Amino acid sequence: MTSNAADPASRGPSGLRVPLRALEPGDRNTLFRCSGLDFDEYDSLVAMAYGGTQDDVPWVQLLETLSTRLGANYVTLILRSQGASQPLQVVFAGEARPAIVQPYEAELAAVDPFVNLPRDRMVMLDELIDEAAWQAGVYYRSFHEPLNLRYHMGADIGMESEPSCRLRVSRPPWAERFGERERAICNLLLPHLHAAVQLRASLDIAEVERHCYVGMLDRLSVGVVLLDRNGRILRLNQAASEILGRRDGLSVVGGSLSAALNGESRALRRLIEQAVVAGVRHEPGVVDGMSVSRPSGGAQLGVAVRAVPPTEWSEPSSRPAAMVIIRDPDARLLASDEQLKRLYGLTNAEAGLAIELMSGRTVDEAAQNLGVSRNTARCQVRAIFAKTGVTRQAELLRVLLSGVAPLA
Predict the structure, then answer these.
(1) Contact 320/347 with Cβ under 8 angstroms?
(2) Which residues form the signal peptide (predicted)?
(3) Of 86, 106, 217, 398, which residue is most buried, by most CB within 10 angstroms?
């Protein structure tokens, strides 16, 4: 792809040419004309910017498309600045060369001349530094020359103290310099990249929160099932998957929850329907529950159903409308003896006994399971009392079950 440095940019009142880099950011019409893009091409690039937020490795398709359109051998998006404990987080289109990247992060990032750029506008490297001196320097010879990096343009995006991200575009030595057409294409995309990076950060935060909440519920053996407005399952956590997989009281039939007994199954459907209606009426506090019998004869499952009120702009057919919470009283809390040892300073034997007590066994039953005498177990219980600051077994169970050990 050839450079269009001679293409007209815009003309001031006197008819003199105004270079694109001098245009105000709001002059989008002139940027669009200079970019040479038609509406469909521009629309496709913008769609890739926002659609890329959903990908496991974001924006790869966008950067590869830009690489072709700009005639670049590398297009790079740096999402995290260099720090003492954080490596660079980089998405790029181009030939991977890990052996070059490592010395860059370790030694050369500190002397990179193409940093701290003017915000939210593309600049050429030769506008900032002396080109001959740069080519003679260690940075160019150690990093750019082996990667066939010769001509560069880039932007730091975002007005915060640290940029949200950094866009860098390069061409090899045998190509032409970048021109105003390529600069205009990138300048048109910068505000969309800024918004997309912020959106991706919000999605990442929400995903981290979801994993934390789901992980805690799994450790407590609490099943959570999200249902749509028709009562069909949208998502369930690991604990719910295990409870339903046993088909002992509750199971999945035709994509919906079903109880083993017909009467209880009808009652469950009514609770779900009531929750869906309550959600439509924005009644988030509506919670109802029931017990579900298990054909195995085990303790009944506890089931709570609550409304999930819609957000103002949610798409009705795919959003959760009701949440079902399932508690299996026979399920063992997933605390480990290592966690109890770290939290309370217990010995191996004391931690093993504490796990037995948390599972609902008496001291005598725990002693039998652990292969120790009743007197030994009682001595260990007294030691656990002293280390946890309690004086009765009921208090001990409250501390162990309501503390952080089952969540750690």
Answers:
(1) no
(2) none
(3) 217
What would the two tokens of residue 14 be?
């006197």
CB atoms near residue 22 (< 10 Å): 12
pTM for this entry: 0.62
Can you give the pLDDT at residue 15?
A: 34
Residues in a beta bridge with 124:
153
Q: Can you read off the two tokens belonging to residue 111?
A: 């002397």
Percent residues over pLDDT 70 in the chain:
76
Helix (H) or strand (E) holding 252: strand 250-253
d(CA 294, CA 272): 20
Residues 255/369, Cβ–Cβ less than 8 Å: no
> CB burial class (10 A; 0-12, 13-18, 19+) of residue 313?
exposed
Percent of the chain with pLDDT over 90: 24
Note the maximum CA span of the chain.
101
- The CATH class that applies to domain 337-407 reads mainly alpha
Select the CATH number that applies to the domain covering 10-205 from these four: 3.40.50.11260, 3.40.605.10, 3.30.450.80, 1.10.10.10: 3.30.450.80
Q: Is 256 helix (H, G, I), strand (E, B) or coil?
A: strand
